[in-house]
Structure formats: structure tokens, C-alpha cells
Description:
Elements (H helix, E strand, L loop, with lengths): L1 H7 L7 E2 L10 H6 L7 E2 L7 H18 L7 E4 L3 H12 L4 E4 L11 H12 L2 E4 L2 H9 L6 E3 L3 H10 L18 E5 L3 H4 L2 H12 L4 E5 L7 H4 L6 E4 L4 H9 L3 E4 L2 H10 L3 E3 L15 E3 L7 H5 L18 H15 L1
Parallel strand pairs: 1-2, 3-4, 4-5, 5-6, 7-8, 7-10, 8-9, 10-11, 11-12
Helix pairs in contact: 1-14, 3-4, 4-5, 7-12
Amino acid sequence: MISKALHKAGLQESIVHTGQHYDTALDRSFFEELQMPQPVVNLGVGSGHHSWQIGTMMIRLEEWLLSQKILPDAVLVYGDTNSTLSGALVAAKLRLPIIHIEAGLRSFNRNMPEETNRILTDTLATWCFCPTETAVQHLKNEGKQSGVFLCGDVMHDATVFFGEQVKGHVPPAFSALKPQGYAVLTIHRAENTDDPAQFEAILQAIAHIDQRVVWPVHPRTRHFLTAHTLPPNLHPLSPLGYLDMMALVRNAKVVLTDSGGLQKEAYWLGVPCITLRNETEWPETLSNGWNQLSGNRLKDLPEMVQTPPKGSRPHFGTTGGVGASTLIVQTLLDELSHA
């Protein structure tokens, strides 16, 4: 959505693909389905330990930037991935302004690699575009107020726009599933996947859910299919593209996930969510029980699946009725003209 807004405003964008995601369903299909411009370069980093991955991204990104005739006016990074931090560090070293979209989020769990990435990127960023008032307050509490803007959530823009496209969309891979007759599981965070005992505890809790649970398997957890005995109600799927995944979630009874983005999408699509963590970066989704934290309460997971939300979903994700992408680009045009 940012790309569309940049193009509409007449700003030139060059997308750099780090190669952190390289599975077709999590890479090429996203560019196609989301109608995004193709990357000008793929750094081909692939997977690896965090420090190696970040270091390799930095080396290759800096080499590519310095090979260009003209350096960009700014470097824009999203979210909290290793690619996010790598882009921010390289931009800082080259003295380029940094734009951080989805700034100010905090789980307050320093064991999460994503938390480190968020904090360091926000510290380096010239302009922090925050999706919520809570995120703005986090930065204020850390002493950062200059260059901080409340803009709404670009993922809300995408969910609204593409959510209309998947109404009635039933991908062949799960055409036999009845609406609200299944749960969706996604799991990929290190705290759940790198601890065999924790992952086994999640599987045991799922086994007691009186519900079919479908699991689009992230490439990071694919090896678990042979390393663990899956409960009979858990049905693994190949990774799904963006639109197929949205359709799967939209028709589910409940979502079980450790993904920050999927918590929001489920909330906006009106599907109850259970977050397989002790905390969330999105406290807004906890309103009226639309999102529940299982964390150390995995034994309660079957009961939580059967517990419906207790009220409406208070709105969040937009500011003043203006889409986040439009507001971000409008603000950037103003900031860059005065830089």
C-alpha cells in the first residue's frame, strides 16, 4: 500500500529484497498478489543465525547502495525483522535519513530478537511512523519525541483493501473445510520453535482441542513435521500466499498464532485469536477477549478456544479517517521538503 501511495505522489521507489524470505509462497507470490513493484535487486542472503544474517545483509546492502550513481534521499524500513535492522544500520553508517514504519511497538520481552530489532531501529530512525497511540507513548517514555508521527496501520489498509477480494474465495487446498468449522495455527517465533519442550507442550494442548486445526507450515518449522508426532486433529498445509491465507483466516472459528501481524488481521476480520505467547505488541487486540494470551496457560488452550469474545471490537488502525499509507506519504513529502 505504501508503494501505491509513493507512486501516486510521484516519488521514486527502489525495492531491495534481502532474501530473508525465499519460499515461493512467502516471497514471489506476495509481490504478485499484492501488486507490488518487483525488487531492483535480490541480495540472496537466505536463512542463518541472527548475527550472520544481519551482518551479511549489511555487507551486501551497503555494496549495492555504493554501486549506485546516486544515493537515495532516504531508506525506508518496515517492522521488526533482521532485514529492518540491517537496513537501518547501513543507512545510519552512510548518513542517510531512516524512515521506520510500524515504529514504537514493544513486547517488553528482550528475549525476542524482534524486540531488539525494534528498539535499535527506532533509536536510529529519523522519522518514526507509529500505528497506535500506545506506540507513540512507548517512544515518548524512551525519550524520543522528535520525528514521531501517529499515522495508523498500513496493514489495516491492506486488510481492508484485499479483504474485499477474498470474500467468497475458497482456495482448492481447503475447499472441504466448512466456514467456522476449523481453527488456523501459525507458529514460527524462536521462543516457541527453538525450545523442544515448549513446542511439544503446544502440540499436546492442540491435541485436546475439539476442533480440526489447519497449520500452514512456515519454512522455519518444516522440519518439525518429522521430528514430532502430530496430534490427529492437526493438519499441516504447505505455506500459503497472502490471499489464500486471508481467506483461510476469514472463514476460521479461531486463530492460534505467535505472529504479531496475524493477531491484527484476525481482529480486523472479526475472528477470535489466541496468541501463543505471554505478551503482545498489540494490546488493542485484547479488547473484549478478541485476542487472548495463552503463554504459560497452554493447559487452558482448549477452554480458551471455546470462549467467545464478550463484546464488540473497538476500532484501531486509522487516524482521522485517512488511510495510513496516504498519511505517511503526505507527511514524508512535507518532511523531505524541509530536510
